[in-house]
Specification:
about 250 residues; Rossmann fold; 5-stranded antiparallel sheet; 8 helices; about 35% helix; about 35% strand
């Protein structure tokens, strides 16, 4: 049996999760629940569970406060959040798994399966998550990228462009480095929209701060400051020209 503690301040969500675990995950026993940071601290001082279901927003603080009180916690953590676009974007920036409320049986099973094999997120990734989720109006300055064998943290200002490679994405970084990431370009285009990145082509996402010129010949393409060129699709031309005009006003 695996022991679990649920930290969740919404009674309905707490009951739903307990019922789902009891029905579909007989190998997990809920040994305690808490609705606040203070309650959670009292429980975790006595018991360290195999799995900790940790809600992000609590009545007296956040799930991050719990982790700061117990920096050496060895429990597998399943982060829980409401269906909030800022929260979801934050988890994607930090490359940390999460499960959405209200839970579906399938999503919960996937989260538990991932948690059983999970390596604890680094402090830097947790910081990215915390900063992005607690200040949604601020632009994140770093992103965590999942490669085939590790997670690499990169500053957004160092990303020159991203290029689609089938269902994967190649990141071109400012030090002539390439990072091959196992997510689609659309995934990153959606995540980075509004953060100085522009989708100029079906296969290309560009950091606008690295654009040096728009060349109108040969169908239209961008010259970047690192001397690389990137094609611009016909339907994106007017948007690119308008954006460059705004930058040079």
């Amino acid at each position: 049996m695996l022991s679990a503690i649920i930290i969740e301040d919404m009674p309905d969500a707490l009951q739903l999760l307990q019922a789902s675990l009891k029905k579909n995950h007989a190998d997990i026993e809920v040994v305690a629940t808490a609705q606040s940071v203070v309650e959670a601290a009292k429980i975790l001082r006595k018991t360290e569970p195999d799995i900790l279901f940790l809600d992000i927003m609590l009545v007296d603080g956040t799930g991050f406060d719990v982790l700061e009180i117990f920096p050496n916690l060895k429990s597998k953590i399943i982060f829980v959040t409401a269906s909030d676009e800022y929260a979801i974007r934050a988890f994607k920036f930090a490359a940390i798994d999460y499960v959405l409320k209200p839970y579906s049986d399938e999503d919960l099973s996937l989260a538990i399966s991932r948690a059983k094999q999970q390596i604890k997120p680094t402090e830097e990734r947790l910081t990215i998550l915390k900063n992005t989720i607690t200040a949604p109006e601020s632009q994140p300055d770093k992103i965590s990228l999942h490669t085939l064998d590790k997670i690499i943290i990169v500053s957004l200002v160092d990303i020159i462009r991203c290029e689609s490679d089938s269902n994967n994405t190649i990141f071109y970084i400012n030090n002539d480095k390439k990072i091959f990431v196992t997510k689609t370009l659309k995934y990153f285009s959606d995540m980075l929209s509004g953060y100085q990145f522009l989708r100029v082509h079906q296969s290309h996402l560009v950091n606008i701060n690295y654009i040096s010129a728009f060349i109108k010949t040969d169908g239209g393409y961008l010259m970047l400051k690192n001397k690389q060129s990137v094609p611009v699709s016909v339907r994106k031309k007017s948007e690119v020209i308008e954006m460059l005009d705004r930058m040079h006003r």
